[in-house]
Design a protein that fits this description.
This protein is an alpha/beta fold. The protein contains seven helices and twelve strands. A three-stranded mixed beta sheet has the order 3-4-10. Strands 5-9-8 form a three-stranded mixed beta sheet. Helix 4 runs parallel beside helix 7. About 10% of the residues have low confidence.
Length: about 190
């Protein structure tokens, strides 16, 4: 919808034509509770020094957490397993009713396209369908970067190693695997 001269309101998600270009767009960020965790080390630089100060300790702690922590389903359904009260008594995790209620809530959220401004897996699925129905797009607009978009950069600027590292660190928190899947499907 054109709201002014050369100014178009796109909306939450979809495919439209602007100035002769087919544009796919996705508003907001991913709803973290409804997507599985992002793959670790997707943008790691080949041959990087693993022994850098601080990196080894942080990497080891994260490796241990991923290897021995509860599975994603456990985190969603059972945020705590046991709590010690001030009286020293141990209280077990949530009741069966609490688990069923949480399960219903997650099931309901999966039927929504957006929750509090965050897109859901259903929005990604529908947008991929719209892109396919449109026969591809010329431009993809999102507020997050696709996970892995920095791959290949190490070979692009060999003389600027520190700058590349900083760019990768800055891009990681605003990268999204669902956007990467959308970009792969859209091939803009």
């Amino acid at each position: 919808e054109e709201v002014g001269p050369n100014l178009h309101f796109l909306g939450h998600f979809g495919v439209t034509t602007v100035a002769g270009l087919k544009v796919a767009f996705l508003s907001g960020r991913r709803h973290a509770d409804l997507f599985s965790e992002e793959p670790a080390a997707a943008d790691e630089e080949e041959g990087s020094a693993q022994g850098a100060a601080g990196a080894t300790a942080a990497g080891s702690a994260e490796d241990l957490r991923q290897k021995y922590a509860a599975q994603d389903g456990d985190k969603v359904l059972m945020p705590t397993s046991a709590v010690t009260t001030s009286a020293g008594m141990t209280k077990q995790g949530p009741s069966w009713e609490d688990l069923k209620e949480k399960e219903k809530q997650v099931a309901f959220q999966r039927t929504q396209l957006f929750i509090e401004g965050c897109y859901t897996p259903l929005a990604i699925e529908r947008l991929i369908e719209e892109v396919a129905d449109a026969g591809g797009v010329d431009l993809l607009l999102t507020s997050e970067w696709p996970t892995g978009c920095m791959r290949g950069v190490p070979r692009a600027w060999p003389e600027e190693m520190e700058t590349r590292r900083l760019v990768k660190v800055a891009a990681k928190p605003c990268s999204s695997q669902p956007v990467a899947e959308l970009a792969a499907a859209a091939e803009p």
